[in-house]
Write a structure and sequence with these properties.
The structure is a homodimer of 366-residue chains. With 366 residues, chain A is an alpha+beta fold. Chain A is built from 9 helices and 20 strands. In chain A, the strands form 6 sheets. A 6-stranded mixed beta sheet of chain A has the order 7-8-18-11-20-9.
Chain lengths: 366, 366
């Protein structure tokens, strides 16, 4: 609630009953004029329409609104609710670390939602999508073991990101794999496809068969790892937000290249995206003086991601479908025996679609 | 060609016949060991496998290679060609400004490729894709005026990015449009979908019918505009690379939100992505002291993008399909009469797929 206001020609100062005081430039007031938006919420004016000579001549309280008179004759009519909403300092940004619940292996319970509940109950679906937003992942259980089903899971919240691997890809042992994921080797903690720009934001792994020994999945909260690195080795953290490494994947069908940092931060210094994938880092070169410091930071990042206390272990059983934020959660797998069958189907999607579905379901992630 | 080398325990220094001198930390040498890569090019070792105690004991030239003996007993066997390639200072990055030919309206000829040539001649297809990489756009002419054809164009170089607008969207006048693009209003220079994260890197506009007066497209090289802004107003440029604005698109089917800067730069300070779309910037707030400086920079950016000398004008005729880099090229359109028919179909794809097709066709963009 607005308790007090005062103005000068160049600005309006508002005091709210929660103690907040907001000062708004007359340019901001022109730019945010509710009359400058179409009914669909889109802005009809551009920054070029602002009058840089305009000043505030008078401000009147009118019921639930403020009428601002400019010295150019123009009036801006602001409902107080609009003003209160629009002048919040922190715009929504549900991608960034600050809005997430970070976790460690030893005190984290993997969020699990049954597929039938997910399909039939709004609350269950919301809970599952909110878990991806907040914790970075959810395990859907009892998903039919039908090839292609993983695409139907995506269609419940977003769109399939088709790639050179297809709309979906099979993770099973093949001879002479173009990608080591399709062998029975263990894989260290990694995010998928750092060589792809834009990187897919959501990954799904749907288990159709798992009869092997080994082949467990380890999952690590990369935002937690980044937060710890920042606390324990701020200089290494800073270096990894700055230096971009080249990544590459190349076979007969595709030649994908990117150049991106391990850790991306926003203008508030919050982590918004992390990456790690030792397999696909292309040869890179730095000035000699920077090489050792960079390798130190790189090693500290890899060590943090491999810290046993950060990981949870999940053995995917037939019918399990893991949905996770590929810009945050690292996955790894242990090696497995060559004998039995293990067949996962994976697919990619994007976070914006998942968040959109979550927002429309009326619940903000915590 | 290697002309000279010398080493110390912690590093190897190489002198090449082009005058280049490269110094490599023993950690770099271990990390780039050719024996540490699988036949498919993927790295088998991780940074955790490097030996921080290892030093160089001896280096021998052996034919076309160098054999590096570490004091741990390990040997690294480098073909000289591999060394020469891997220790280049600048890794490939075809997204960034430095590799592009920037253009202005008055001295730029829109690259045009005929659809039949594109389909039947490797050179024509390469030329078209290289134009998108280098200039940010190409006009394909004579593309069949068949609804859905735009998706077939995408399938020649990449994958369709499906969104809430569908696999493709129709740009024609509708009553009560959820997006002003679907009205007959003029639209200022903009990139599409800044509220989507990741933003689609490639946009296509395929003209099926154009019988209206007006409705011309203006195209602007956003990398050129950013370069000029950097030269003329370096402080404004810097501010726009740093401050992130919230964007939002919301209707009954979707609620999409992002928080991104107008201009993104890489670790070398080169522009890699630009954005502008006055319609979808959500309400935003900055500390009062920063508001005026930000509005000034924002206005300068909008003015630069609207500078008539930067734009080229294209009237899309039936059968024309414009393919452009939506992280670089701004498009605008003039208003058009309500009477005649104008029907475009648009669709999105991603740059990595387009670049991959270009690389595989054996030609690097200039």
């Amino acid at each position: 609630m607005l308790t007090h206001f005062e103005f000068e020609p160049d600005s309006l100062t508002l005091a709210w009953n929660d103690g907040r005081v907001t000062r708004l430039d007359v340019l901001w007031l022109q730019d945010h004029d509710p009359a400058g938006r179409h009914g669909n919420g889109q802005r009809l004016i551009s920054v070029l329409d602002l009058d840089w000579q305009a000043g505030i001549r008078a401000v009147e309280r009118q019921g639930d609104g403020l009428m601002i008179h400019l010295n150019t004759g123009r009036q801006l009519n602001y409902p107080l609710a609009t003003l209160a909403r629009d002048c919040q300092m922190t715009p929504e940004d549900d991608r960034c670390q600050s809005g997430k619940t970070l976790w460690c292996g030893n005190d984290f319970q993997l969020p699990v939602v049954g597929w039938q509940d997910y399909l039939s109950k709004d609350d269950s679906r919301r809970q599952a999508l909110a878990a991806v937003a907040d914790n970075g992942l959810v395990l859907l259980r009892g998903v039919p073991c039908k090839p292609g089903q993983v695409l139907e899971v995506i269609e419940t919240f977003g769109f399939v990101r088709e790639t050179n691997y297809g709309r979906l890809f099979d993770v099973q042992t093949v001879v002479s794999p173009s990608n080591l994921a399709f062998s029975n080797l263990g894989l260290g903690p990694h995010t998928d496809n750092p060589y792809r720009d834009p990187v897919p934001g959501v990954q799904l792994l749907h288990c159709l068969v798992n009869e092997v020994e080994g082949g467990e999945n380890l999952l690590v909260d990369g935002f937690q790892a980044a937060a710890r690195l920042q606390t324990e080795h701020p200089d290494a953290f800073e270096l990894l937000t700055r230096v971009r490494l080249p990544y590459r994947f190349s076979d007969e069908q595709a030649d994908l290249r990117s150049r991106v940092p391990f850790i991306e931060t926003d203008d508030g210094g919050w982590v918004i995206k992390v990456r790690y994938n030792n397999r696909s880092i292309a040869p890179f070169m730095l000035p000699f003086e920077e090489q050792r410091a960079f390798y130190r930071a790189y090693r500290l990042w890899a060590e943090m991601l491999s810290a046993p206390e950060l990981a949870i272990t999940v053995r995917l059983e037939a019918g399990d479908c893991l949905v996770f934020d590929n810009t945050r959660v690292m996955h790894a797998r242990t090696a497995f025996t060559d004998g039995g069958r293990r067949h996962l189907q994976g697919a990619y999607s994007d976070l914006d679609g998942l968040y959109s579905t979550l927002y429309l379901s009326g619940v903000k992630p915590c």
